[in-house]
Amino acid sequence: MSAAAVRAPRIRPARVVLHGFLIAMAALWIFPLFWAIYSSLRPISDTIQHGYLSWPSNGLSLINYQTVWSQAELPYYYLNTLVIAVPAVVLTLLLASMVAFACTQFSWRFNLATLMIFTAGNLLPPQVIIVPLYRIYLATPIPVLGEIDIGKFAFPIFSDRGLLYDQYIGIMLIHIVFQTGFATFVLSNYMKTISKEITESAIVDGAHVLRIWWNIVLPLCRPALAAMATLLFTFIYNDFFWALILMSTGSKRPITSALNNLQGEFFVNNNLIAAGALLVAIPPILVYIFLQKQFIAGLTLGSTKG
Amino acid sequence: MATSITPAREDSPEAGELAPTRRGRYNVLTRYDRRVLMLMVGIPLLLEIIFIWWPTLSSILLSFTNYDGVGDVGPQNFVGLKNYQFMFSGYTLFWPAFFHNVIWLAWLAFIATPIGIFFAVLLDRELSGTAFYQSVFFLPVVLSLVIVGFIWELQFSPTEGFINNAFGLTKANNIIDWLGNPRINLFAILIAASWRHVGYIMVIYLSGLKSVDPTLREAAKVDGANEFRTFFRVIFPVMAPINTVVAVITTIEALRAFDIAFIVNQGKNGLELLSILITNNSISEASLVGFGSAIAVILLVISLGPIIVFLSRVMRTTS
User: What ipTM was reported for this prediction?
Assistant: First the structure.
């Protein structure tokens, strides 16, 4: 701060060029989003009459948002995502923190190998495992446990076909497994910085490991857990692939995967596409506005340490 | 359950006694604790093996069969290297898809990633508005590639898109079909994908730059090195660990490319990618499980490169 203040009076040409360049780049970067917002706010009749590159003659309106929201029944798709993402994030963090705890606070022989298995698993392209995974999902029976009924959509608690395929729980499961690899890697890097003495003395005092994990180590990891929760939620919200392949019922798909079908069916013109895309982008944009620090912390924890 | 732990930890007289017997400290673990720890690692590990590593191994095994998804797979399905022979010499989509992945990687590695690094270097200085610029470049990173695809369709669409309208390219004789013309559509979606990739790399590189010892830069300045030289001779070499991560991320992203091509035209007509051929052959259109697995094996073999690089780095830093 002070260095900048001292420098401020001298305007250097290099700085001007730099700012000019950055402003141009920032404008270029923001433009596609700006254009999407603009398109989404114009009634299609207005666009057709005056062309895409024109000022709106009758003002802007939210009509496209209303159309998409009600006709494409977007609220249900948000709910589909929520039903999958929230338990998946919680369970991923629990599983990953257990592995990270056991592998960083205690020295087992296979610590490194275990961490490798998790880390490498997350680096694989999902398509490498999809063919057998699809078969496994089709061949795994799971019990039917009733369903939660809300109007048009029903949420089977476990399965409505008796298979892992085409289930919320199936999508949840693959997210948990896939993301546990990543979360284990990040959390173990974080837990390495916690002194082993803490665990050691707690053990000497007679605390059980579960208690140490839950009452001592997890609270110390709160910043990392918050960062990972933000990141994992965004990752799972943004997933397209797993639900596209492992779920066949269109109305059960989480919102990002459902977009592909909605595109043909309801998003019949560019203004509707824009409104639909922006509605779906709202949760990540809220993350961007309110949790940017956590999100960035999550990304960089996974890359700069370890 | 044990009584309160925290106070005991604070005045822990045992901690001092524990230090000399570091090696033997696991003797203090009760049998119950050992079992709990075993489960804590075992359950996630089992899930990881069943749903990630067993399918990986199965892909390899299935790639030597003609299994079509009907009934059980057995020795009668074994066809040796037939799937691979057909893939390399008979299947017309394999090499285009392979080269599209190569182009994807080259584009990210030589264009998008360097731009991200360049932005990071520009923004890693005392500059008014740095936070603003960072936020702008970072924005697309939170969006899915599906949304990115939709947003860019509004730019690229032939008669309704911004680009053609802005440059007067909407007439029959000069219209450019950015997403439909197989000679250019790959580059159009690469621009869209880069919109997101640049911010991602920028954020990671910036966090690395922040941890570079500032005295290094001072020293280079005193020695009379300009910024260009300082970066390539001083900063870039000490950033080696981050450079590896960035290289790994870039490669993995190129191999995973799927969503945006699928959203545009289901990965056909110039947008074929290995990842899309796998699903098209084995899941949606046909049920050529064996053949699709052979393509998956190719993708696996290529991915092993960045995976091994990354793991060996993890090994080095932990041991």
Answer: 0.89
